[in-house]
Specification:
- The protein is built from four helices and eight strands.
- The strands form three sheets. Strands 2-1-4-5 form a four-stranded antiparallel beta sheet.
- It has two domains: 125 residues, no CATH class; 43 residues.
- Helix 3 runs antiparallel to helix 4.
- The radius of gyration is 18 Å and the shape is globular.
- It is α+β, with helices and mostly antiparallel strands.
- Helix content is 28%, strand content 32%.
Length: 171
């Protein structure tokens, strides 16, 4: 039986530009530290809900799935209306590749992308062939930061983004 252990970080945004004497605006970062999702059968599911308790304002929510090494793999965004609660099933995301969109509709991940995410979460070799080894990625990122040059950092970020989207049908 294949099991995923997932960490998901949920970020909700509040107002960031406010006068010094303004009343504090509630915001929250919530780390759900441990999930198991059964990829081989239908024995386990992981449900969670996100609620906007503000009676007047909508709130943007960003949910990030990380590996157990803290590497972000996928980001899901949503907007919750005042007093709205929305439920999510992590199994749908990680087994079927059905990710919720900001409006609540579902969109399917490309099969190669889903296979990559599942492999990364299981600690297995990805079926996606990347042109760089992990050591090369770390070395290039460290060199870019050490240079202190913004253009160098952006060039490395752009090339890594291109690598991460290899095989994506939207390119």
């Amino acid at each position: 039986m294949k099991r995923l252990i997932v960490t998901i970080l949920i970020l909700t945004g509040g107002l960031t530009a406010a006068p010094v004497f303004a009343e504090p605006t509630p915001t929250s970062d919530l780390l759900l530290p441990y999930f198991e999702v059964d990829l081989s059968g239908f024995k386990r599911t992981t449900l969670f809900t996100v609620t906007n308790n503000d009676p007047q304002r909508s709130v943007d929510v960003e949910m990030v799935v990380h590996t157990n090494w803290g590497i972000p793999l996928e980001t899901v965004k949503a907007t919750l209306e005042p007093k709205q609660t929305r439920g999510y099933n992590l199994r749908d995301w990680l087994r079927q590749g059905e990710l919720p969109q900001p409006d609540g509709a579902l969109a399917a991940l490309a099969p190669r992308r889903l296979a990559h995410i599942q492999s990364a979460l299981l600690g297995q070799k990805s079926p996606v062939d990347y042109p760089r080894t992990p050591t090369e990625v770390v070395s290039q990122v460290n060199s870019a930061f050490a240079s202190g040059d913004r253009a160098t950092m952006l060039a490395v970020a752009s090339s890594l983004d291109q690598d991460n989207n290899l095989g994506c049908p939207l390119n």
